[in-house]
Specification:
Helix 8 packs across helix 11 (290-297). The two termini are 37 Å apart. Helix content is 42%, strand content 17%. The strands form 3 sheets. The protein has a 5-stranded antiparallel beta sheet with strand order 3-10-5-8-11. The protein has a 4-stranded antiparallel beta sheet with strand order 4-9-6-7, with no helix packed on it. It is of the alpha+beta class. The model is unreliable at 8-13, 18-28 and 175-189 (pLDDT under 50). It contains 11 helices and 11 strands. It has 2 domains: 11-170, Regulatory protein AraC (Jelly Rolls); 192-297, Homeodomain-like (Arc Repressor Mutant, subunit A), CATH 1.10.10.
Amino acid sequence: MTDRKPGYAAARSVPTYELYGELLSGISGDPVHHEAIRDRSRRHGWTIQAHRHENLAQIFVFHSAGVTFRAGELEHRTTGAVALLVPAGLPHAFRFDEGVAGDVVSLPLSALRPEIRDMVAGGSPFLHPGGSPAFDGLAQMVAQIARLFRDYGPGRAALLRSLAEAAILYFGVDQPAVGIAGPDAAAGDRTRDEHRASEFCTRVEEAFAQDLSVGDYAALLDISPTHLTRLCRHHLGISPARLITQRRMLEAKRLLRFTQHGVAAIGLRCGYKDAAYFVRAFTREIGRSPGRWRDEARG
């Protein structure tokens, strides 16, 4: 693989993605989201193009060398283990060697306590090399988050939130390579369409269980459906219809795995009044029927 550095243009032209994996940034039912970096990067040819998350901070723990990244003005290629904190709103891009080992924990700002949220609501990245006390503590916490994220039980959300907030605090241990420069340092100029894209995500989160069309959402934002489609593709990297569907499927999978509700009831909770249509939509999107997916998810 080439050693070419990932880059991006001025912050104003860097797309603001509200999705990472299957997480609606900033307003998810889970207080954090965990994903293995290998799983995400492999599907994108080991390259994550420049983007930013307006309402989402992320912690990356790389256990292997061969990761080239840019976060804000920080450019780095790892020669060993390293931990990186990317505050909300900061443009970032990655290029990975195949077989990279690591984890990413995504943190919606809305899930964090105000004093913790202020630390990651903007500013510069934090970087800790492997072997430092801060890195060792971070790696242990992220490993606990990974295990807990796959389970479900009493206190899960509170534990995930506490571990995530503790991980953020660990970035203040020792001397970070790059410190936080203040909540507005890297937020960048937000265009009107970026604000509308962010508001659309908020509206979807509030109303995905209702039978609203793209045209209905456009009317709520006082723009045309064509304009909504254009700004979503540009700033979110996805059409509004696909985003609505993905959010409904995310909730459907959560309910299938963690509740005893029947398929028809779950479809209704996800905005599908017709149970048969929900089954067809789920099967088309996920590749398996709701019942089969539930059986496989529960092992």
